[in-house]
Amino acid sequence: MVKGKKSTAKYVIDCTQPVDDKVLDVAQFEKYLHDKIKLNGKTGQLAANNVVISRDRTKLTIASPQELNFSKRQLKYLSKRYLKKQQLKDYMRVVASSKFSYELKYYEVSGGDEDAEE
Question: What is the Cα–Cα distance from 89 to 97, expressed in whole angstroms?
């Protein structure tokens, strides 16, 4: 009997810009996600459901079994909450860069093009 390989869904959160500017600590962000991600309505269920959070220097990767139907939307919600907690929400936003990844970007501020004299 040949068993098929279990498929996994991998979600990536790219924090390159804030990490390069030393605004965000990826290790703290990883711990926050590890503590706050809910599965079946409960936190702290990651190991029991084979969900793995890994990080390299600027990216977090969340791998979960396909049959778990892990919500990408929950990652965006938790990322925004983390930015608010770190008081960075006014300067950064979470943008979907592809179907399975998010990116933390700065808001674009246009300056000097205003008509102050009217």
Answer: 18
Q: Residue type at 95? A: V
Distance CA 109, CA 99 (A): 27
Location of structure tokens 């970007």: 105
b/e 70-93 (16+ beta carbons within 10 angstroms → b):
beeebbbebbeebbeebebeeebb
Please state at what angle helix 72-85 crosses helix 26-36, rounded to 10 degrees: 120
pLDDT digits (tens, 9 = 90+) for 53-100: 999 999 999 999 988 888 899 999 999 999 999 999 999 999 999 999
The pTM for the full model equals 0.83
Please report the beta strands in the chain, taking only residues with DSSP state E, as ranges in sequence order.
Answer: 8-14, 38-39, 42-43, 52-55, 59-65, 92-98, 101-106
